[in-house]
């Protein structure tokens, strides 16, 4: 699996991806999931991928090959991010046309998803989530982030912290915490990480760093966040059972007996010890 | 979906389940997922279920019908929790034998999982996770909890807090936080909740409460935990980019060009803005 997250904020874009791929737990490799197309002053495009590695590599290779041919329609000359997302979607469909049937014969799903974000010229920064079918959705100020891959472990902290007004540095911190929670709970996500920060209207990559275990900031996040969670957990009061409402009708539990009608548990039950 | 969690701790057992079922977002119902078999002084068994509701209800109904017949092998006379888990597994297999083919004709997977925990007579409290195939695993002091259903959102806090030495009240608090994170991130998990606490060697249910939005403790968890997370998030320092190692070799990004060989992004890149 993989975990990638991207946020489209008032100040710009933050993207974070891991680099673990696995085909079974004994076949783990490191492949970067983030590809950056940059022409300073004109456009920055960040493409992140999750799913079957052979499929996602095919898509990225075709996009690159087209991008290397001058005058061919490509990520370099598409006039808008929307057109770029359509190009990526069309490329996924090409790979599907070529490979899906053969994969199906081996019982392998056509499993791939992409995040595309960036800014082109006068457009605002935009963020798209592109599905295996080649269709896609765009983020908005109400839903300013997308995740692909092993997304559930790291979603609660994003839901609680991120809004379109979040600063780029805070968003980077939140993305790293989300990644740390995912890595902790799921073996198939792992370091090194690729972190990219793009400041709105800069039309060049602001910061693009590789993060491994020797990175002191991620190490601090890894150690401190868990400790902070345990601290606020300890600060929250334990339930004080004496204050729990006692008027709730006790729920019957199943008692032994032959021929005795067995009643479904009904709503509402407090039985004190 | 559903979310259920059970913990087997030195002090006893804590079980928490939600009550939402859904077949599509426009077909949401409330069904309890926790069934308790209790014969004070002899045994307490807690069975929680996730998956296809028709399957899990069939399993529970058969277990109840057998339990209602005296002298029949059932959850009331099985001598150990292990035998009880085998009974549940055998019952799942019976339902599979009867229903799986018909379900398959409608493209419906045979999807069901169960948590069984409790204590019988002189045995210590035990906790089992029973799969759709009828096989099962048992918790240990290294892995003292199991989850079924929509388990990923609520796993990070369990991973960080719960060990077999956690007290029952702390474990109940942690289970409720885990549930709150899940409810917040996933529509298919919802109140009311069933919370059951069992004190080791009590051989009767210590506490069995139904929790709805009018429960002040859960309301406190719901409000305070999010606020606490945001507070410790704000306390963690943002990345101070000036301290990030600069010696890492810059990673080439893809530049426009025809015929220019396109290089894979290599490990390690810092480009400052």
Enumerate the strands of the largest sheet of chain A in spatial order, edge to edge or round the barrel: 10-1-2-11-12
Oligomer: homodimer
CATH fold name of chain A: Glutamine Phosphoribosylpyrophosphate, subunit 1, domain 1
The coarse overall form of chain A would be globular
InterPro entries (chains A, B): Ntn_hydrolases_N (IPR029055), Proteasome_sua/b (IPR001353), UCP009120_prtse (IPR016545)
Organism (chains A, B): Thauera propionica
Protein name (chains A, B): Peptidase
Pfam families (chains A, B): Proteasome
Question: What do these coordinates show?
Answer:
The structure is a homodimer of 273-residue chains. By secondary structure, chain A is an alpha+beta fold. The first copy, chain A, has one domain (3-230): Glutamine Phosphoribosylpyrophosphate, subunit 1, domain 1, CATH 3.60.20. Chain A has helices spanning 53-68, 81-105, 155-161, 168-185, 216-235, and strands at residues 3-9, 12-17, 20-22, 28-30, 34-39, 43-51, 112-120, 126-130, 136-138, 145-149, 193-199, 207-211. In chain A, a hairpin with a 5-residue loop joins strand 8 (126-130) and strand 9 (136-138). In chain A, helix 1 crosses helix 2 and helix 4 crosses helix 5 (216-235). Mean pLDDT of chain A is 87; it is low at 258-273. At the A-B interface, strand 5, helix 1, helix 3, helix 4 and strand 11 of A face strand 5, helix 1, helix 3, helix 4 and strand 11 of B. Chains A, B: Residues 243-273 are annotated as: Disordered.
List the helices and strands and how they pair.
Two copies of one chain form a homodimer.
Chain A: E1 3-9, E2 12-17, E3 20-22, E4 28-30, E5 34-39, E6 43-51, H1 53-68, H2 81-105, E7 112-120, E8 126-130, E9 136-138, E10 145-149, H3 155-161, H4 168-185, E11 193-199, E12 207-211, H5 216-235
Antiparallel strand pairs in A: 1-2, 1-10, 2-11, 3-4, 5-6, 6-7, 7-8, 8-9, 11-12
């Amino acid at each position: 699996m993989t975990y990638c997250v991207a946020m489209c904020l008032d100040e710009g874009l933050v993207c974070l991806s891991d680099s673990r791929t696995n085909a079974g737990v004994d076949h783990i490799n490191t492949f970067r999931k983030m590809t950056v197309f940059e022409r300073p002053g004109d456009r920055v495009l960040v493409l992140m991928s999750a799913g079957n590695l052979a499929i996602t590599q095919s898509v990225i290779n075709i996009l690159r090959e087209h991008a290397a041919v001058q005058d061919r329609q490509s990520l370099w000359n598409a006039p808008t991010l929307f057109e770029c997302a359509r190009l990526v979607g069309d490329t996924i469909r090409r790979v599907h046309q070529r490979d899906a049937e053969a994969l199906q014969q081996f019982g392998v799903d056509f499993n791939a998803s992409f995040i595309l974000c960036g800014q082109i010229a006068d457009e605002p920064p935009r963020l798209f989530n592109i599905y295996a079918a080649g269709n896609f959705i765009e983020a908005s100020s109400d839903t300013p982030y997308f995740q692909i891959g092993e997304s559930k472990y790291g979603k609660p902290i994003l839901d609680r912290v991120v809004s379109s007004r979040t600063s780029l540095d805070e968003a980077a911190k939140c993305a790293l915490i989300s990644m740390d929670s995912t890595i902790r709970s799921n073996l198939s996500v792992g370091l090194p990480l690729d972190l990219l920060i793009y400041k709105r209207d800069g039309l060049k990559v602001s910061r693009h760093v590789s993060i491994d275990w020797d990175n002191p900031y991620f190490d601090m996040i890894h150690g401190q966040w868990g400790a902070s969670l345990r601290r606020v957990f300890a600060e929250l009061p334990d339930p004080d059972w004496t204050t729990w409402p006692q008027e709730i009708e006790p729920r019957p539990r199943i008692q032994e007996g032959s021929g005795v009608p067995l009643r479904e548990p009904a709503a509402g039950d407090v039985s004190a010890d």
